[in-house]
Amino acid sequence: MRLFLLPISTRRSLLYCQRLNHHLNSQKTIIDKVTEKASKTWHQWENSEKKYQKSITEYGNKVFQRISFEEWGLKTIPPLSARRKQDELMGADKVEVIFPSRYIAQERLGDILGKLALSGSKHIEFILENKLLKPAPSPELDNLYPSDPPSDKAKEAKYTGDRAGDNVDALYDKEEVMLLRKHSGEAISNSLDIPELRGELERAIHQVEASLKAQKELKEEKRHMDGATNSDPGKPGNETDEKR
């Protein structure tokens, strides 16, 4: 299998697994075959000219938005079977992790994936414990990301590492910003030739954008309330003209 670690913002990334041996029917389980068929059908329906098929996928994607993109990403990782353990330990199944080195430092991969393993992936935990990770910085991905973080503040950014998902070296001490936009999902999936990745990326981008928008609105509301409180003449310490 092959892992992709794709930063969505300066603090959150999507982990996606591509199963390399799916072209070998003899190695597919029934679950693998059903999952692959369902994924291909869903992708075809998303791009279908038939209105009812497109409507079903649009409604379904809205429902899926309620599940975090991190959880969806972990679902792409195959279960840790005895056979997979043996293949990976013997080197028959290389575990590459592909990432944009512009925004993720190679020496931090273990820490990043370790945090994700704590969120529910025994398979990732097994790979890390047995040192089966094969880092693969991708110039192709670097070219698909902005050449510089979208803020001058990023030049003075520091890696905070204080929460699961803090995984980009160019993190802000105070500000999290988007690295990808909706159109990025199609561009990256086309470049990597993984059609199924587009939906995962678009879901992640939508969720992170919504989260940042909510955080911004909350800060603005708090700032407004603080301003109203400070200007209240009845607040202790605020003297009115009449008292003067």
Describe the protein.
This protein has 244 residues and is α/β, with parallel strands linked by helices. The chain has helices at 30-46, 51-64, 69-75, 82-90, 109-118, 122-129, 139-144, 182-192, 195-230; strands at 2-7, 13-18, 95-99, 133-137. The chain has a 4-stranded mixed sheet, with helices on both faces. A hairpin with a 5-residue loop joins strand 1 and strand 2 (13-18). The radius of gyration is 22 Å and the shape is globular.
Alpha-carbon Rg, integer: 22 Å
Number of helices: 9
**End-to-end gap:** 76 Å
| General form | globular
Task: Name the poorly predicted regions.
Answer: 152-173, 240-244
Helix content: 40-55%
Q: What fraction of the residues are assigned to beta strands by DSSP?
A: 5-15%
Q: How many β-strand runs?
A: 4
Strand order of the largest sheet: 2-1-3-4
- Which sequence of SSEs, written as H and E, runs from N to C? EEHHHHEHHEHHH
Supply the helix-strand structural class: alpha/beta
Q: Residue-averaged pLDDT, rounded?
A: 77
Largest sheet: 4 strands, mixed
